[in-house]
Amino acid sequence: MSTSHPTLTLVQGDITEQTVDAVVNAANSSLLGGGGVDGAIHRRGGPEILAECRSLRAAQYGRGLPTGQAVATTAGRLPARWVIHTVGPVHSDSEDRTDLLASCYRESLRVAAELGARAVAFPAISTGVYRWPVADGARTAVATVRAAVAESPDAFDEIRFVVFDDRAREAYEAALADAADAG
Ligand code: ADP
Question: Which residues face 120 on adjacent strands?
Answer without folding.
Answer: 22, 159
